[in-house]
């Protein structure tokens, strides 16, 4: 029987390449889990420019009274109106020119458009409806583009939640409150 000295056994230890590859893979996966997913797969790290025109954004700010509007929602609203309305961009340009020429604010705009029987008289209301309710168009052309991020809910967000969620236990929306 041969007796080995403990230090001699340690000198003969050879690192296991498979085990080291497994540990390196686990460590790499762990480190990669901290990289945000959109940045990990993004071709262009720069944010995309807004598709909504400058005229649409400035009119939207004037009509809603909000200086900061959601860019993604603006793009969806602008895209929907552009596909429904003929020459939507031209209408926006005409309305912006009318506002600048008459030196109007949001409070006096509708009265001035109605007084002149302008063909653009319904445009401000349609823009505001899109921002506050989230619906663009009417009838068969109506499209709901946003619900919970509509401005009508932002105005009362400190007290009221959008009525599309059940805030009680599972199935609570199924009980008739009058029968209880």
TrEMBL record:
Q: Which InterPro entries match?
A: FAD-SLDH_ssu
Which keywords annotate this record? Membrane, Transmembrane, Transmembrane helix
Membrane-spanning residues: 21-41
Protein's name in the database: Sugar dehydrogenase complex small subunit
């Amino acid at each position: 029987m041969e007796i080995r000295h403990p230090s001699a056994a340690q000198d003969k230890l050879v690192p296991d390449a498979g085990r080291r590859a497994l540990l390196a893979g686990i460590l790499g996966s762990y480190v990669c889990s901290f990289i945000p997913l959109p940045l990990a797969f993004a071709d262009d790290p720069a944010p995309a420019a807004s598709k909504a025109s400058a005229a649409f954004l400035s009119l939207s700010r004037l009509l809603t009274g909000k200086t900061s509007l959601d860019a993604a929602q603006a793009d969806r609203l602008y895209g929907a109106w552009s596909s429904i309305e003929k020459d939507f961009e031209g209408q926006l340009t005409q309305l912006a020119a009318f506002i600048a020429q008459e030196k109007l604010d949001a409070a006096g705009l509708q009265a001035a458009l109605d007084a002149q029987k302008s063909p653009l008289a319904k445009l401000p209301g349609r823009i505001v409806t899109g921002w506050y309710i989230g619906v663009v168009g009417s009838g068969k052309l109506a499209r709901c583009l946003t619900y919970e991020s509509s401005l009508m809910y932002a105005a009362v967000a400190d007290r009221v939640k959008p009525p599309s969620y059940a805030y009680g236990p599972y199935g609570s929306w199924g009980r008739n409150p009058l029968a209880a």
